[in-house]
Design a protein that fits this description.
The protein is built from eight helices and 44 strands. The protein is mostly beta strands. The chain has a 22-stranded antiparallel barrel. The radius of gyration is 28 Å and the shape is globular.
């Protein structure tokens, strides 16, 4: 379906929601029933009184966040009784703050930091557990797990940016959650809990917004929800959304020249070199994004004990341009020379079955996720960097063989076409004993299989067939691989009330992981015959880079030798084995056996554990101590000559307190120390290869706190964290360090990157009755200190630090009889909040790109509930 057609479909869904409302309103409940429009639910399907706006004046009944019900420990619990560091953002606060995406809600979560290059391409970290460089398709698994309801949606490529609308709450669980949540929850877990179908009545809502970005374009958003009872025991809930985020980065006119021209930005050919310009791609507001999709959930009560809830989510995101600007060119400006875009489409089908066997709760949660991304990226910086690096021998033209079929030197610039196709199946079955028992347990089994079909095509226009990747004229470098990651686990957690106010908890998770990678990477190999040699693949140049090591040279022959080995030993070079991954010329990343090529594998097994002691000093004060351990599986490097990397482990020691004072003030805090052993370290090595090694150990200390207070019409919230994360040993490309060929990249005591030392946010909202309406004014301030962009000392210096920033949002509006109208300002003082810094390749230090927050945005939003 074309994009225009999808827009019409979504708009029609939302319009129909408002049109059909009057017809159903005729069957509305009696006047003394609570307003349907203000219903919100927890993930159990029950009304969450902690998030229901009754429409009364003064403080909203139950708005106090201490009443939020969460399921962080696989049970329904008041957030103040859960003995872990957890923040929860409920329905009302998500709506009040106009939150719709990942970047917006993470500014409220003090323990969360992230790296991003553009919307939908984000890697999440918690409590400073970050070495940088993650998110590559052949890189480590994430250290933070993401769940949508009961199902994990963490993929190898990073976090799904699920559109936030009609969400019951977002839970952030800091620290290792390996007992209940497994491998990709080494440092923490983020859970997005949707509102569930409600069998009581028909109701819905429609919301829309329009905004203008300073130095940018116009954005808009329309969203809608319908809750439709089908019978006394079944209901359907449907959500639809479309959002356009305006661009604000300009692709301005520029040139690049390659030796023998005098300067890399010359626009005139004086010495016979190659000169190019980007006139065809000059555009203001280059980086706009469109996000659209929908979600549907069906709830069926089979009887008084058993409920079945199938759900489906579809979302597509289309990014145009790039989200990092080049400060050497200008503020919010860059010069790029090829089409740039990213399409990210995912669909998930899930099934949750909940019931009882006797007085024990039984839950099954299964899901299938299919995610496809397609990108086109400018890689001009690579040619610029290498032309300079080889200037002593005439640059690229003098050192490489970037030639067409007639042997003429061509424009050496590259663009990258890439796709990733993720598939993920997860199954979990668990049981829980009655929560009121003195001794109670949660136990279950888990299985997960995720795959990624990897395709990276580095293209040079008019590149000759003989120097291209075999079978792909114009391709300088090709990656075509299949990755499979499998996890199996048995888990359990038991709690015993030693005294009515003293509880001990112990849990464990036994796991097995089995990860593999197979396929092709690298340059081609000229298939022609050198007359002096007489064998295939002996003619020179071997490829455009003149490389005899990487690519087809490393492919396997029928006798188990590689092509390069046979060529050097005088053997037969004509019997390359067929490609294991369709679309590649042959296979150079595999394990050879006499029966054929099989994937390279790494396997492991072990156990994680958690011990907790909880003491309730009073009904309003609880303290706890936790000792927990999490892990992340090992994996395979895509370079066949680099060894697999091992699992890394995180051990956490934590003390926390949760208080509820005066029935108006909630204050929670925790202090912790974590030991991160042999952490996985991902970096761009020689020839811009992503390499993953196990680095040294790290020590992380920190504290985090959050508070909520409400009185009269005033509601205040605040959250803050302090993180001190350092290496405990020298970091080298290989551990242990030693020798001139393995120099120290970062000395002992180097701070871990990405995570700021200090992060804080606060919100204030004041409501007051104005006639029959309720008017309000609201503000949000978020601050974080500076952080290193890379753990390696030299690279951190070339990238520059992520600077400290403080941003603010403000809004004023009113609610009247189910209608809302609001004027808002985001990024009030137009701060350039630096979210990430990156360079295009391992040697491209001449240009650092800064991914920044959206400039000041002024908008109007309106909504209707029925």
């Amino acid at each position: 379906m074309h994009l225009f057609g999808r827009r019409i479909l979504i708009a029609s869904l939302l319009a129909s929601a408002s049109v059909v409302a009057p017809a159903f309103a005729q069957t509305a409940p009696a006047p003394d029933a609570p307003p349907q429009a203000d219903r919100a639910q927890t993930d159990t399907g029950q009304t969450d009184t902690g998030q229901t706006d009754t429409g009364q004046t003064g403080p909203v009944a139950g708005e106090y966040e201490g009443d939020i019900v969460v399921t962080a420990q696989k049970r329904d619990q008041n957030i103040q009784t859960v003995p872990i560091s957890i923040q929860a953002i409920g329905t009302k606060r998500l709506d009040d703050l106009n939150i719709s995406n990942f970047n917006q809600y993470t500014q409220l979560l003090p323990s969360v930091s992230f790296q991003t290059t553009q919307p939908g391409s984000t890697v999440v970290y918690m409590r400073g557990v970050a070495s940088g460089g993650d998110g590559n398709h052949s890189g480590p698994l994430p250290s933070v797990g993401t769940y949508l309801d009961e199902q994990p949606v963490t993929t190898i490529g990073g976090t799904l940016d699920v559109h936030v609308y009609d969400i019951a709450r977002i839970e952030s669980l800091a620290g290792p959650q390996g007992t209940l949540y497994g491998a990709s929850s080494e440092a923490g877990t983020i859970r997005i809990i949707t509102n569930k179908p409600d069998t009581s009545d028909f109701y819905g809502r429609v919301d829309g917004a329009v905004n203008s970005v300073k130095s940018g374009g116009i954005g808009s958003k329309i969203e809608g929800m319908l809750n439709m009872p089908l019978s006394q025991s079944a209901a359907l809930r449907v959500v639809g959304f479309y959002q356009r985020d305006a661009g604000f980065i300009d692709n301005v006119a520029g040139c690049r020249s390659y030796l023998p021209e005098p300067t890399p930005t010359s626009c005139t050919s004086a010495n016979g070199g190659v000169v190019v310009d980007n006139a065809a791609f000059v555009k203001k507001n280059y980086n706009d994004t469109e996000t659209y999709g929908g979600r549907a959930a069906l709830k069926v009560d089979l009887d008084s004990n058993w409920t079945v809830t199938p759900t489906v989510l579809y979302q597509e995101q289309r990014n145009h341009g790039t989200y990092g600007y080049d400060p050497k060119v200008g503020d919010l400006q860059l010069q790029h020379f090829f089409p740039e875009f990213r399409r990210d489409r995912f669909i998930q089908g899930a099934l949750t079955i909940e019931g009882k066997v006797g007085n024990w709760d039984v839950t099954y949660a299964g899901a299938y996720l299919d995610r496809k991304t397609y990108t086109s990226s400018d890689y001009t910086d690579y040619a610029e960097a290498y032309d300079s690096a080889y200037s002593s021998v005439g640059g690229l033209a003098g050192y490489f063989y970037y030639q067409d079929n007639a042997g003429r030197t061509i424009d050496p610039r590259q663009k990258i076409i890439g796709t990733d196709h993720f598939k993920k199946t997860s199954q979990e079955l668990r049981v829980a004993s009655p929560v009121e028992d003195r001794f109670r347990i949660v136990a279950g089994a888990f299985y997960q299989r995720q795959t990624n079909a990897i395709f990276q095509d580095y293209q040079i226009a008019n590149l000759g067939t003989a120097v291209s990747v075999n079978g792909a004229p114009g391709t300088l470098w090709l990656t075509k691989q299949k990755r499979v990651d499998k996890d199996y686990a048995m888990f359990g957690e038991a709690s015993f009330d030693i005294l009515p106010n003293l509880t001990a908890t112990a849990g464990g998770r036994a796991y097995i992981y089995d990860n593999s990678l197979i396929g092709f990477y690298g340059f081609g190999r000229n298939p022609a015959v050198d007359p002096d040699d007489g064998r295939p693949y002996s003619a020179t140049p071997f490829n455009a880079a003149g490389s005899s090591l990487t690519g087809v040279a490393g492919c396997y022959l029928a006798n188990g030798q590689t092509l390069r080995e046979a060529y050097r030993s005088g053997g037969d070079t004509s019997t390359l084995l067929p490609a294991a991954v369709s679309g590649s010329p042959c296979t150079n990343l595999a394990t050879y056996t006499t029966t054929g090529l099989i994937p390279k594998k790494t396997e492991g097994q072990g156990a994680t554990y958690r011990f907790n002691l909880t003491y309730k000093a009073t009904d309003k004060v609880m303290v706890y101590a936790t000792f927990s351990r999490g892990f992340r599986p090992g994996g395979i490097n895509r370079r066949g000559d680099v060894a697999p990397y091992d699992a890394d482990f995180l051990t956490n020691y934590e003390l926390g307190v949760k208080t509820t004072l005066f029935d108006r003030l909630r204050f929670n805090a925790a202090i912790y120390q974590q030991a991160w052993d042999k952490f996985q370290f991902s970096f761009l090595g020689p020839n811009s290869f992503t390499i993953i090694q196990n680095g040294p150990n790290a020590r992380i200390r920190g504290a985090e706190a959050d508070a909520n207070f409400s009185t009269g019409g005033l509601s205040l919230t605040a959250a803050a964290s302090y993180t001190d994360a350092k290496t405990r040993n020298d970091l080298c490309a290989r551990q242990p360090c030693g020798g001139e060929e393995n120099p120290v990249l970062a000395v002992k005591g180097t701070r871990l990157p990405i995570t700021p030392r200090f992060k804080a946010s606060g919100t204030a909202r004041y409501s007051v009755p104005v006639g029959t309406a309720k008017a309000y004014i609201q503000g949000l301030v978020a601050h974080q200190s500076s952080a290193s962009a890379d753990i390696r000392t030299f690279q951190a210096g070339t990238l520059g630090r992520l600077k400290a920033y403080t941003t603010a949002n403000a809004s004023i509006g009113a609610d009247l009889s189910g209608y809302t109208l609001e004027l808002f300002v985001q990024n009030l003082w137009d701060e350039r909040a630096q979210l990430s810094r990156f360079q295009q390749c391992g040697t491209c230090s001449q240009r650092t790109y800064i991914v920044t927050s959206t400039p000041r945005t002024i908008g109007l939003r309106a909504g209707a509930k029925f």
